[in-house]
Amino acid sequence: MKCLSALLSCIFFLSSASAQKPARTDYPKGYFRYPLDIPPKLNANFGEMRPNHFHMGLDLFTQRKENLPIYAAAEGYVSRVKIEPGGFGNAIYIAHPNGLTTLYAHMNDFMPALQQYVKEQQYRTESWEQDLAIPAGKFPLKKSDFIGYSGNTGGSQGPHVHFEIRETVSEKCLNGLLFGFNIPDQIPPVIYKIGVYDRSVSMYETIPIIAVAQKSGDGYRAAVPTLGFEKVQIALHATDAMTGVPNPNGIYKATLYEGEKALAGFAIDKIGYDETRMLNAHIDYKTKMEGGSYLQYLIPLTGDALNIYPYNKPGDCISLKDTLAHPYRLEVMDAYGNASNLYFTLKRNAMRKQPLPRTEPLMRAGEINVFETEQLEVFLPEKALYDSIYFRYAVTADAQPNTFSPIHNLHQATTPLQEAMTVRIKPSATIPYHLRDKVLMKKITRANTEVAKANWEMGKYVARFRDFGSFQLVADDQPPVVSGLAPNGDLSKSQKIVLYVKDNYQRVKNFRAELDGKWLRFVRRGNSFTYIFDENCDRGEHVLSVTVEDEAGNKTKTTIPFKR
């Protein structure tokens, strides 16, 4: 096999000449107050690892209740309001005079004046979803002013407040635990294991050597077997806990030392939402996707652009030039300075034999990559890959109803992408005229199915995806189904209307409701839609008209008379 070492820049023990000191995070302590009037307690911390993203703030415990009052963390003004069915749900952004912005998400309701303002904008634009920039003088706030109620809206999995501190200009999220909140924490991180990798090949082509950490004396120890390779990457599995909270949190910092010299490591802070997907570069994605633990790399991969590694450049590695035993100390620390240490030794024997050559095309990180056959084109932009891969492709015949191509198996789901790839598929059969604008590209990754509208371009259907998997052209002519409200019902004793939309591919693209010909505000959560009776629906006879559209453009219009 042709070795990928030419793509890598390695250094002998990551000497001090190539290292730089960690950035100082001298954030103002005591400037922000805790946004709730209950004892501080976290459900999750900053940097905790989630599927395809870092957790970008602090999840504040609300005693498993909704509708607790939330208060402004400092003086400022409401600068933005966001309303969305997933993600933050209902969220307020407050800009502060010190150049920082705080965010409060998953709220049920805002303070009355702001709630009314948002509602007016929703009716003006005839859209429940909003992303409103608020003029600076419209909603000024003093520290501890009431701003609304906690909830469970958006992508929340239980009642809590998601709280963030951001740089206003860059919008990068900062580690809130570095701002001196009085949250009890005397518990050091727990270290479980490390992974040791052959860095002369792609991270997606190698298998980690796992060394389990054993508690011993003043720290942890792990026994790493003798290695058969020179160029080394190390990854860490560790979690942190806080006093009185059983759930495991993410760690703040890890630093690898040889003697007193810091060689590698990371500090989880100052990450933007345009970077958060790069979590997939920071972890051993392949191991995690195969059911393993989160293993965090100490050295950035070639395509990792996160600014959390103070000692190394992307593509660096540890280089074992000799066969001596080299002792290391790995210090793992939380944001309050509680630390645990892992001690281990790396030693290599004579070099292993060179692997056999590979026949698959090599796709390089940091370059544009293209794969083509007569039936298929795949285009990966320059920043799509985190590390180089040998691209694997296979095609499988399939003749299910309303399918118009074989299944194209593109590489493997255990290799992540940062940017979306473009996939072009040529139909393998003539598509009936009435289905040509109903074509979707379907991606299957293990048990998950995702569809995207496919557009016709120069003899092929085109769509974009951010994951490898199995791809096929399908036609969807099944409209969504609306349920939840029977015609001619008496709702005089009801407080709300709840509608449910079912689609065969679970992709509800558009929803519009009109009451007696005028737009009506329904709140969306997943594929359920709720209207709470207010001044826009008087007592008497009414007609509710609902139009729903799926990803393929199929529409359903339902007219439901009712009495209130």
Name the features.
six-stranded antiparallel beta sheet, 3 helices, 4 domains, nine-stranded antiparallel beta sheet, 564 residues, mainly beta, Chondroitinase Ac, Chain A, domain 3, Glucose Permease (Domain IIA)
How much is the radius of gyration in Å? 27 Å
Percent of residues in helices comes to under 10%
Distance between the termini: 74 Å
Shape: flat
User: Overall pLDDT, averaged?
Assistant: 93
Strand content: 35-45%
Low-confidence stretches: 1-22
* Main structural class: mainly beta
Largest sheet: 9 strands, antiparallel
* Distinct helical segment count: 3
Number of strand elements:
47
Number of domains: 4
Helix and strand layout, with pairings?
Blueprint: E1 42-44, E2 49-50, E3 53-54, E4 58-61, E5 69-71, E6 76-83, E7 90-95, E8 100-105, E9 109-110, H1 112-125, E10 130-133, E11 140-141, E12 146-149, E13 160-167, E14 173-174, E15 190-198, E16 209-212, E17 214-216, E18 219-221, E19 231-242, E20 245-249, E21 253-258, E22 261-267, H2 279-282, H3 285-289, E23 296-297, E24 318-319, E25 326-333, E26 339-346, E27 362-363, E28 369-372, E29 376-380, E30 389-390, E31 393-396, E32 407-410, E33 416-425, E34 439-445, E35 448-453, E36 455-457, E37 460-467, E38 469-475, E39 481-483, E40 489-490, E41 496-502, E42 508-515, E43 518-519, E44 523-525, E45 528-532, E46 541-550, E47 555-563
Parallel strand pairs: 18-26, 40-47
Antiparallel strand pairs: 1-4, 2-3, 4-13, 5-12, 6-7, 6-10, 6-11, 7-8, 8-13, 9-12, 13-14, 15-16, 15-19, 17-18, 19-20, 19-23, 19-24, 21-22, 21-25, 25-26, 27-30, 28-29, 29-33, 31-32, 32-38, 33-37, 34-35, 34-38, 36-37, 39-41, 41-45, 42-43, 42-46, 44-45, 46-47
